[in-house]
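Lab notebook, bench 4. Still working through the backlog of constructs that have no structural model yet. Next entry is a single chain of 641 residues. Request: give me the C-alpha cells for it.
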Amino acid sequence: MRRTFGLILASAAAFTAGGAAFGQVAGDECTNAITVTADTAVNFNTNNMTPSANAPADGPCPFLDWGASKDIWFKFTPPASGLGVITLCGSSYDTSMVVYTGTCAALTRVDCDDDTCGALYESIIEGISFTGGTTYYIRIGGWNADAGAGTMLITVEAVSGGCDGATGACNNPHGAPGCNDAVCCTQVCATNPLCCDIGWDIDCVNAAVQLCGVFYYTCTPTGPANNCATNATLVPATGAYPFNSVGATMDGPDHPGSTCQSGTNTFFDDVWWKFTSAANGVCTVSTCGTVSYDNKLAIYAFDTATPDFNTLNTALVACNDDGASGQCFLTDGVTPYASALSFNALAGKTYYVRMGSYVSGQTGTGSISFTLPEACQLPTSNATENEACGSSGNGGCNDVAGGAPVQPIALGDKVAGTFWANAGTRDTDWYSLTLSADTQVTAKVSSGSFSTLLILGGTCTSTVTLGTGTGSCPNTATACLNAGTYKIFVAPQGFEGLPCGSGAINNYVLEVTGTSATCPVSTDVCDDPGPDNTTQSNDPNLTVGGVACGGGGTTTANTFARSFSGLTSGEIRCVEFGYSNSGGPVPVSLILCRDTNGGAPESLGTDLVELARRDLTPRAAVGTVTAKFDEPVCLDGNTSP
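Model written out:
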C-alpha cells in the first residue's frame, strides 16, 4: 500500500512551482550537466542540489512524482552505438530517473524508471539503444521530493555492425540489413549473420518473432467474411450482430492468460469487428448467452483508420475469457463459457474487436453485442467555477502555497467548470462543502472527457479519501459524512491530450446533492495517541508472510504481516493503516499478534499468537482505516508484535 495518498494528491498537481533559482553547483541544471563516461561509477548527492528551474514535462512517465525534487543532471555521449544500462541500484534513497536527447531547451524523453531495483526503490534503465556520437541527458531526482546520496553506473554493450543505424522494422521484411530494434537485431544476427550482411528477409522476421516476441501479421481471407482483421466487420451503432465463425483461422497474436483471465494464451479460430468511437465513454462488448461455444474477447486500439496490423501485439486495450465475476459462466444455458468486457473508449480512435475460441477447432454461430459510447449531455448549471481554463483559481491542496484557494460549493449546486491536461500536467479543481448535520452526499461530474472525482476529509497534509468516483458520464461518488467541512476534487483522468481550446470536452458540470442520514462517526486519526507512538510506512517488508494481489493474479484473500520491533511492554490502544483496493472497499480484519520468536512473521498458529482482532469495513476504496481496541492490549512479555 505504498504511496496510496502520494499518488492521489501529488499526481494530481495542476501547476509546477516556479521561481527556483538556477543552480550554481555543477549538475544542478541541465545547462551545466556533469559529463560522464561508460564503465566508471559516479557518486552523487542530491541533498546539495535545487529543483530544476525549467524541468521538462514527463507526461510519458506518469508514475514519476518528482514533487519539488532536488535533482542532478549528467550528460553522456557514447563513442559508438550499443545497448546500454544505467543503474542507480544501491543508492541510499527512493530515486527517479529520466533519460533525454536533444538540447536543454528542447529535450525529448528516451526512457525512464522509478522503482525497478532495490529495497529502497532505486532506479535502473536497461536496454537503451545508444547511438554513437549522440548526447544523452540524465536527470536523477527522488520520488515525492526524496533526496540523498547515490551511485550511477553506465555500461554499453556493442551491437552487431548491421544493426547500427538500421531503420527497417524487425517484424517487416525489407531489403536493407538489420532492423531498428538494436536488441532484437543483435539477437537475430547472432543466429543468422546474413540478416545483418545482406538484408532482412522473411527468415529474419520469423527469427525475430521467435527470439524477440515481435508479431508478424499474416492472414489468408478464406472462410467467414471477417476471418481476417484486415476485413473486420464494421459496427456502425449499438446493437447485436450475428456471425458464423465456421472455417475461421487465426491471425491475431497470443496474449498472456493472466492478462485475459484465461487458462490459455491463444485465441483460436478468430473473427473480427471494428468501430470508430464517436465520443469518450464506456464501451461494452459481450457474447453472454448468445454464443454456443467457449469463446474469448480482445480489443485493440489504433489512432488511424488504416492501422499497421504488425503492431497488434502492442495495441491490446482489454481482453476477457468467461466474463467478469463469472457473469458469462454459461452461454446457451448448457455450454460454458462466453465472455464480456467494458473499457474506456476515446473519441476518434478506431477499435478492433476479436472473438476467438478457447479450444482449437471450436466454431459456430451466434451474435455479439456492442454498446458504443454516446456524447455526454451536460445538465443545466446554476453556478460557475471561478477559474477560467488555463488559469489557477481553485488549486486547493495542489496550490503552491498549500491548501488554498478552494471554491465553496453547497448542496443543490450544479457548477459549470473547465479542466485541461497537457504535456504531463493536468488542472485540478477543489471545492469546499460544509455540512451542518449528518448527510449522505452524492457528487456527480458530467463531462465529455474522462474525469477523476474524490470526496476528501482531513487536511492537506493528512487527507482521507471518503468517496471515489465511478462511471464516465456521470462520474459519481457517494459518502455518508458527519457535520463538518469536506473537499471535493475534480480533474481530468489523464495528463495528456486535453489542452485548453479543445472544445466541449474541456467542460464539465459538478452536481452535489444530499439527504439526511445517520452516519458512522468519522475518526481520521487515533485520538490521545500519547508520547510513545510507533510508526512505520513505505516499508518493502509490508507483504512478508502474505500474498499481494499486486504480485500477480487475483486471490480470494490476502494477508499482510508487519513486525514492530521493541514493543515488549506497555499497551496498544489504537492502530491506523493505509488501505487501497481498486475494486472498491471490502471488509478487512486487523489482527494484533505476539511474535514468539522475533523473526520474520510467518503465520498464525506458528510463530504468531493472536492477541486481539478488529473486523472493519473501510469507507472508501483508498484511504486510512482506524482500529480502536475497547480494552487496551497488554504487551508485557512480548517478543516483537
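Notes after review: Helices lie at 4-10, 182-191, 194-197, 202-212. Residues 2 and 538 are 5 Å apart (CA to CA). Flag for follow-up if needed.
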